[in-house]
Amino acid sequence: MTENNEPIDVSGYSFEKAVAELESIVARLERGDVALDESIAIYERGEALKKHCEALLTAAENRIEKIRLDRAGKPQGVEPLDGE
Asked: Which family does the entry's similarity section mention (predicted)?
């Protein structure tokens, strides 16, 4: 949430754009050259970006699961995406 309690809208961001901005936020916070109020604001934005990336990854995983089903809807050797 922002100062005026409006939600942070990152829903239109691609996964790549969201990750790039999130990396930029992490770098700024790690440098420690940001004022406390701004740190809190960009941290909140980072949280929104993280949640958006997680949702996009979950959607991608679900699409892959659907692709790996046969015409009858039965799994065709479904394996975890991370190879475990």
From this structure: Belongs to the XseB family.
**Burial bucket for residue 45 (CB in 10 Å: 0-12, 13-18, 19+):** middle
73 is written with which tokens? Answer: 């809807």
**Domain residues for 22?**
1-84
| Residue 48 neighbours by CB distance under 10 Å | 19
pTM for this model (two decimals) = 0.72
Buried b (16+ CB within 10 A) or exposed e, 3-14: eeeeebebeebe
Q: What stretch of H or E contains 28? A: helix 15-31
Span 19-32, mean pLDDT?
Answer: 95
- Indicate the number of domains in the chain: 1
